[in-house]
Amino acid sequence: MAIPNQLCLVLVIFLSIFVLSSLPTNAILPKVNVPLPNANIPLQVFLPKLVENLCNIKSIGNRRFCLKALSTPKVITAKDFTQLGTLIMKLRAENAMVTLNVYNEMIMKPSSTQALKALNCCIEAYQYAVSSFEMISSELIEDPQTANNDVTVIGPEITNCEKELIDAKVQASQLLAGNRFVQYYIAIGGEITSTLEHENQNEY
Question: Domain count of the chain?
Fold first, then answer.
């Protein structure tokens, strides 16, 4: 006697379920190592034309470093060159203060008398730099020529600080890096103040 088609279908389904249930789980759902995307991919920062134009100036030097240094939330909101310069000088004052704090910590335990002399020299230089950068940020609006003069006189102070550190054989790469960073911002400040000075002269 032939088995009805419906009964055959039921038997096939039953046997299939029985066979699958008797297999190990990993035989049914094998584990696949799918690499996950990197969640720490930084978002691209779109810098304004003002910053790009500034960093493209030949005297600035390292364009890539310039773009990276100025890609801060405050700086990229600048709407004109005066505002850009003001924000950069304020940023530099904050950074110089960080380096000044390092000098203040190191002078508590100088390695030698010559090192003490060098650290004192650098503390004075950075105190002057911090106050100058803050002053320049306010001068840019009313008197860019004075701001240009003020930014240029910071350089020799930092250069003398670096010379004293080298002569005293103070081994501190962080301090030397801070000095180079200040010199770089002095170059940026010089370009900004010069540009604003020329713009003011053209208005008359």
Answer: 1
In a domain, residue 52? The reply is no
Q: Give tens-digit pLDDT for 137-188.
A: 888 888 888 988 999 899 999 999 999 999 999 887 888 888 888 888 888 8
Alpha-helical (H) ranges within 5-112 are: 5-22, 25-28, 49-55, 63-69, 81-106
Residue 92 inside a domain? The answer is yes
Q: Which domain holds residue 144?
A: 85-203
126, part of any domain:
yes
Q: What does 158-195 look like in DSSP terms, one character per residue? A: HHHHHHHHHHTT---HHHHHHHHHHHHHHHHHHHHHHH
DSSP letter for 75, please: G
Q: How many angstroms separate the CA atoms of 132 and 76, rounded?
A: 23
Q: 88-131, pLDDT tens digit by residue?
A: 888 889 989 999 999 999 999 888 999 999 999 999 999 999 99
CATH number of the domain to which 170 belongs: 1.20.140.40
Residue 1 forms part of a structural domain: no
Q: Between 201 and 3, where is the model more confident? A: 201
